[in-house]
Predict the structure.
Amino acid sequence: MSEGFWGSEWFRLILGLVIVLAFSQLNALFLVWLERKVSGHIQLRPGPMEVGPHGLLQTIADGVKLIGKELILPLQADKKLFFLAPVLVFTPVLVGFLVLPFGPGLVIHDMNVGVLLVFAFSTITVLAILTGGWASNNKYALLGAVRSVAQNVAYEIPLLLAVMSVVLMVHSLSFSQIVESQKTVWFIFIQPLAALIYLIAATAETNRAPFDIPEAESELVAGFHTEYSGMGFGLFFLAEYTNMFIVCAVATSLFLGGWNGLFGISLGIPGVCWFLLKTYFLIFVIMWVRWTFPRVRFDQLMNFSWKVMIPLSLANLVITAIVVKII
Amino acid sequence: MDELVKNEAGDRIYTLNLGPQHPSTHGVLRILLDLDGEYIVKADPVIGYGHRGHEKMGENRLYRQFFPNTSRIDYLAGLLYNHGFVLTVEKFAGIKVPERAKYIRVIASELNRISSHLLWFGTYLLDIGGITPFLYAFDDREQILDILDTITGSRLTYSYCRLGGVARDVDSKFIDMTRAFLKRMSSRWADYEALVSKNVIFIHRTRDVGVIDEELARQYGVTGPNLRACGVAFDVRRSEPYEVYDRFDFEIPTGSRGDALDRYDVRFREMQQSCRIIEQALDHLPEGEILTPKVPQKLPVPKGEVYFAFESPRGLTAYYMVGDGSQTPYRCHIRVPSFGNLNVLNEVLPGTLVADAIAILGSIDVVIPEIDR
Amino acid sequence: MKIKDIEARMGKQFAGCPLERDEAGVTGALWSISVPLAGLRDAATEFKDAGFFLESITALDFEDTFELVYHFNCYEPCSRVIVRMLCGHDQLAPTICDIFRGAVWLEREVHDFFGIVFSGNSDMRPLLLPEDADYHPLRKTFGKVGAYHKREVIYG
């Protein structure tokens, strides 16, 4: 019985869940620190320096502060939904880790619909944002939530279309198989357009600048999480960074060869290092973009999606399908 | 949630109370926006949160005592307001100013103008979501504050000018720092242009946004860069030259469309022109006194009125003082440019998006305490 | 030259009104004209048609009367002109906010500070003062006051 349990899928899942919970939190804290460092160096300043070496422990101190803060419930807010939203925003993010292939065999549960699962669950995030924005009884929050829904609907489509072109080439929705088939050539070289569309749409999906209009602080104060304090805000914040990690990890798996080295040359570096290296590089690119560009306007964002991204990704998908059929 | 979607006429208009505490209202401005979705139907700016009664204070203080107040009316251009005030009183009382002091005042004023524009540049980009240019601009502005610190002893509220001159002479350190700053800036413009002016997102956010045409500007008394953006080359430094501005060779940048991009462009080029003025003033800085020795304690102010207009970074600013022959003015009125510049938003904002409203408000460059006085 | 144009127009419109030239330039204006209170709207219309803009509206409080001072300017060198009129303490002033739309706020400010009511201006809410303010701080009867003169003490 015991031996059966230790080797069973259940044990793998529970162990995975514990690791994921620990990793996602630590990773999010690290990313917040990284973001502050990156922005600091871009802006000619050192960023956090005081707590820990190069401010490494700054975000932990911030986290402790956030936990210690009072959760304020605005007058006439919908209490149940208000506190449900931060939980709702964080849970689906964790599911994504279930199927991400960190290395050969290093995947908690390799599902044959892994790609679908990640995107299906990441869509719940927008529901959480809408819930939080609506329940706050605040006009800025509501405006932010409404923007978020429109934006996510618009960018989900090119995102999935870009992913589908890769899926068509591999004939599989399993991450491990997609990565396997990039052993020699990464898909970014075969599908550069899909990769670009994916990166742009993913930036919009995660509400990152220049597409951060749901929380545009100069317009909507803080957008959908205007009324959240303490850990309520903290969870939204951590979810944003975990989300960012997931979309970048997915991009790594789909386009940058996952745990594979460039053109099959691994240089003796373990696969998991390759994977994390590429993921963090993508995260760095997204941060770099954030600290360089101003924010686009809402209608421009929608126009860009419906008039440019969706037709392009559709065309890309059709061409891929034809080429795959011919070959 | 009922009051959230308040509809008086049975339609879907609701009111958003933007401010007085909001990240992009630059001080304490409150705008009541009637919104249809994200489109603005009606905008009603509510001001007065920073009213300190400067005009009443002016009536209760000696002319000399009103100095420190002037640099607090528009805290971003304290030196220019200070400069304008001494010019007003000097004109009223007929006090002569030495040449060297005039040049120093111009140099200090233009430095202050650049610092004000740089602050605007940074916060404007912040308003439309670009955070990094803000820190670059503040880095440059810091240099100006350091330079002005060496001669005035303060960083924001300078009170540097005196009746008949200036408080302290400039030394070689000041001149070296200013020249170094000019050299630094000459390479910075290209950086700003690459980072901001040519950025496609920035251009799309500002082009054809918040158009103020010449007629609208005239109706509301819009002046300064906002007026020049619609193609009118009206600058008090040129139209009624005061101090020694008529001796310098500088251009008055103008736009053509009167939109936010033009206003940005005009201010951007204005900073470069200010650098040119400083350079010429430094080249021709005469030797001599910095303060007229015989300014009587009791100012020879006549009965009657004086009106003096000067160009602040935000436009035509003027002091209007009525004297009854005593040492305190009978009436002290300050014409502030932001007043008309903000008022025009009543007509510009309707029909735009909330995001545009922020972009327009930022491009107008209002300093709310200046309006509130 | 818009300034010549407006001088001719004003001379025709307000033939009997005193027009003071300021050679020394202390007042910042080329000339100032005193018109009766009822003539304000006609004067403003002339200025609008001549291409001027309204630079500032302010008032002075004297023991015997208020005096309204309007500064008009145009986008040409040294073209400032003053229009002034006496307005008794209990008189209403005519609004010019339909002629210069920016006058709404300027008149509201004068109303705030002096309590002069502009008839025809539909929006007389306090602008700079609190919404419930019932005092007028720049009147010489409010707060600390240095001197309270009759108009002739200053203007002779």
Notes: Residues 42 and 148 of chain C are 32 Å apart (CA to CA). Chains C and A do not touch (no CB pair under 8 Å). The domain at 2-143 of chain C is CATH 3.30.460.80 (Beta Polymerase; domain 2). Chain C is about 25% helix and 20% strand.
